[in-house]
Please model this.
Amino acid sequence: MKELDEHAHRDKVGKTKTLIVFIVTIVLGYLLFIIPDVFFGVTKMNGGKIGINLLFMGLFQLISIMVLLYASLKILKKKFSAIGLRFENFGKDILLGLLFGGLWTFLQFVFIIPNTGGINRMDIKGMLEMYDGSLVGTLSFVALGVIGGGITEELFNRGYFINVLKETFKNPKTGLWFSAVLSILIFALGHMPGTALDWFDILVPTILYTVLFIWTKRLTASMVAHGVYNMSAIILTYYMYFL
Model:
């Protein structure tokens, strides 16, 4: 009986430690995502959030978040594989990512965006402000979308958030679904949707990426889907509304 009590106590202490590390990591992570955006947005250095600065923003987010996650996982005695960064079935995951990322791109740019305001949509206007018309600037924007979005956001918002938080629950299934729903809501709120259309535009792909992650138990498919959509959206917006 005493041994069972000691085991339960250690388990409770372990879950408490995991929860504290998780909360600190999430708070620091969102700050790191915000820092380059605020820095270039406020200082307007080298033109602000435009051109090559977009590449710098993506690289800062990737490197800083990777360092943060490495430190957090080390404290929890885990590896990146524990949050889904694994590459078995790599080909299958790429195909899934291409399929779902391509499908959402098609729906958005063939049906949804043209019929909900097109160039007058706030998200399109916001993107247009980040083009400088140069090849370097456009490629830098794509890099931000793929590196900062497709890779870094999936590592942080999907892999780390869901797989670490779920371990603080006694019931694994409850922990998984609570963590998944919470990650979807927080990720959506981070994009500051202001209208029903904004909510639709962010919730649909976010749910899609989360389902891919939970279904495959790996980040590869969701990274590819997220990256494909971001890259396609940047390129299509450039050719449809900027030129």
Notes: The two ends are 74 Å apart (CA to CA). The helical segments are 2-43, 53-75, 90-112, 122-128, 135-165, 172-190, 196-216, 220-242.
